[in-house]
Write a structure and sequence with these properties.
- This protein is an all-beta fold and about 120 residues long.
- The chain is about 0% helix and about 55% strand.
- It is built from no helices and 11 strands.
- Strands 2, 4, 5, 6, 9, 10 and 11 form a 7-stranded mixed β-sheet that branches. Strands 1-3-8-7 form a 4-stranded antiparallel β-sheet, with no helix packed on it.
- Strand 7 and strand 8 form a beta hairpin.
């Protein structure tokens, strides 16, 4: 089984920054670099939305247009860790942030438990 554990959430003022981490582990998760990794957000009362993806082929990266360059996804394959650097945070960025993994882009098989981000105005 594959486990994903997010961390780095918390309370931050508007305009601040946070860096989220997602560490992958598990008996079958010995080739982290081969997985497509993703960050999602679920804001209060809203559906879960895809924020960013990183799949290993060619180091391809996707960021949602709505982020307007404020968030950056990255990964450290040696540490089996996915990151999300979040800058210029806004109150509307408040929500639970999840990482998800799959064998290819658009596949979300494994999920973490989420980390809460709260941005105060």
């Amino acid at each position: 089984q594959v486990q994903l554990v997010e961390s780095g959430g918390g309370l931050v003022q508007s305009g601040g920054s946070l860096r989220l981490s997602c560490v992958a582990s598990g008996r079958t998760f010995n080739t982290f670099s081969s997985y497509a990794m993703n960050w999602f957000r679920q804001a209060p009362g809203k559906e879960r939305e895809l924020l960013a993806s990183h799949w290993w082929i060619g180091g391809s990266i996707y960021h949602a247009d709505s982020l307007k360059g404020r968030f950056t996804i990255s990964r450290d394959n040696a540490k089996s860790t996915l990151y999300l650097q979040m800058n210029s945070l806004k109150p509307e960025d408040t929500g639970v942030y999840y990482c998800a993994a799959g064998l290819r882009r658009g596949e979300y098989v494994y999920w973490g438990q989420g980390t809460q981000v709260t941005v105060s105005s």
